[in-house]
Design goal:
Layout lengths: L16 H4 L8 H13 L3 H6 L3 H5 L3 H10 E14 L2 E12 L2 E14 L2 E14 L25
Antiparallel strand pairs: 1-2, 2-3, 3-4
This protein binds zinc ion (ZN) (2 copies).
The site of one zinc ion has 5 residues, from loops.
Length: 156
Amino acid sequence: MKTCPCGLPNLYSECCGRFIEATQIPSTPEELMRSRYTAYSQANMDYINRTMQGPAALGFDVNEAFKLAKITLWRKLIIKQSSMEKNKGTVEFIAYYTITNQNHILHEKSEFILQNGIWYYVDGQTFLNEPLRISRNDKCPCGSHKKFKKCCDAIF
Ligand SMILES: [Zn+2]
Ligand SMILES: [Zn+2]
């Protein structure tokens, strides 16, 4: 059985698939964040498009994003922290991806708003989005305090 690309030990159909392919709506920013990561891994720009608003949507070029998504292999999502208060929320995460054999790390804090009962991605602060240059004995960039070779290196 195939678990969800977002990394939770759940079936896709019972995890992000509920939001991407069925009628359920994410009830937290983290659920939305995870489902958007999964949708990116599927190059599902329709879902990406309809789950964002504000600055994020303004700067979004769906054709460019689709082209990029088609050549990107999303490896792993690590949620560092998520919060919500009233109609706002944030999710800080690390994601690993590979483009043309080059591994990358993305570290971002995403912002979300709740509008008419639906969460949307509206903006993000990128701390890091670069080729992964790390030796196997270095500390893992995911923050686990393990060596890279004993931690996230296993996903590549
Ligand atoms: Zn999922
Ligand atoms: Zn790690």
